[in-house]
């Protein structure tokens, strides 16, 4: 990455068409793995997982004619860095207008790196009910886990070098 002023120039790793194709593939994988899709719900992790969750649900509707409930989850109060001097969470709105009890929850995020956000999201999710299973879908897996977390659906594996996200 190149440094320009205070910001680092970002390299584009997935273009719009790549993302469209990747989300279509992940939607097919979700349908293949979950034959009884009436137990399926999709929940996007704030912030960037929310539009991805909606797009996955749109793909499933287009492919199978199934309307899958979609929710959004704010997990900021469940993070393990709340006591950090530099982190002050902005509380967003969790919107899960359906029961997750005995449902297969597909939790959606854009990037999986250390696993800490996923752990926080699962902790937050459990406060809303007891799902039958939680599956994780991510657009990009960067590796470098600090916690034993693994995605069930991965758009693209792009290992980070060192500690770079």
Overall, the morphology is globular
As a percent range, the share of strand residues is 15-25%
The spatial strand order of the largest sheet comes to 4-3-5-6-7
The residue fraction in helices comes out at: 25-40%
Count of separate DSSP helical elements:
3
Helix/strand class? alpha/beta
Largest sheet: 5 strands, parallel
Gyration radius, in Å: 16 Å
How many angstroms separate the termini?
Answer: 11 Å
Order of helices and strands: EEHEHEEHEE
β-strand number: 7
The CATH architecture is: 3-Layer(aba) Sandwich
Count of the domains: 1
| Uncertain residue segments | 1-6
Write the CATH fold name.
Rossmann fold
Q: Could you name the CATH class?
A: Alpha Beta
Report mean pLDDT, rounded to a whole number: 88
Protein model, in words:
Regulates the transcription of the pyrimidine nucleotide (pyr) operon in response to exogenous pyrimidines. Also displays a weak uracil phosphoribosyltransferase activity which is not physiologically significant. Helix 3 links the parallel strand 5 (104-112) and strand 6. The chain has 165 residues and is of the alpha/beta class. It has a single domain (35-157), classed as Rossmann fold (3-Layer(aba) Sandwich). The strands form two sheets. Strands 4-3-5-6-7 form a five-stranded parallel sheet, sandwiched between helices. Strands 1-2 form a two-stranded antiparallel sheet. The longest helix has 18 residues, at 16-33. The protein has helices spanning 16-33, 49-64, 116-126, and strands spanning 3-4, 7-8, 40-45, 70-73, 104-112, 133-141, 153-157. It is 27% helix and 22% strand. It has three helices and seven strands.
